[in-house]
Write a structure and sequence with these properties.
Elements: H1 14-34, H2 40-46, H3 52-76, H4 80-102, H5 109-127
Length: 133
């Protein structure tokens, strides 16, 4: 005899899923880029042709602001599907450019892609959640 178990009770609260996605963007934007907690990221950006140190540093700051804004947008739960689309496009563009221009200095390119794939799955789970239930 098989019993059916309601696994929906195992899901974390919706606010926690949103907070997890927002925390990644906040960490990446604020700590890694704006506060330069990961100096290697500037080195990666500087490998893009025509960027170099001057434009690379400015690009990294702007990207940091965009990522912090994505954290706030995620937490707001406004237009969640559009938010997920923007997150997906940004992450795919960043990964593609990183692999194209800086693969030789990224310590684990395959790991980067796999982790970001997992993160994007969570982004789309977050987009599918109802409001603040």
């Amino acid at each position: 005899m098989t019993s059916v178990v309601d696994t929906s009770s195992l899901l974390p609260p919706f606010w926690l899923i949103r907070a997890a996605v927002a925390a990644v963007w906040l960490y990446e934007g604020l700590w890694c880029k704006l506060l330069r907690g990961q100096p290697h990221e500037l080195e990666v950006v500087e490998t893009v042709p025509y960027f170099g140190p001057r434009i690379g540093a400015l690009f990294l700051k702007v990207l940091g602001v965009v990522e912090v804004a994505l954290a706030a947008w995620t937490l707001s739960a406004n237009s969640p599907v559009m938010c997920a689309v923007v997150q997906t496009l940004l992450l795919v563009a960043l990964n593609a450019n990183g692999l194209l221009w800086a693969r030789h200095i990224i310590h684990d390119p395959a790991g980067m892609v796999i982790k970001n794939f997992g993160f994007l799955v969570l982004v789309w789970v977050c987009a599918s959640l109802p409001g603040y239930a």
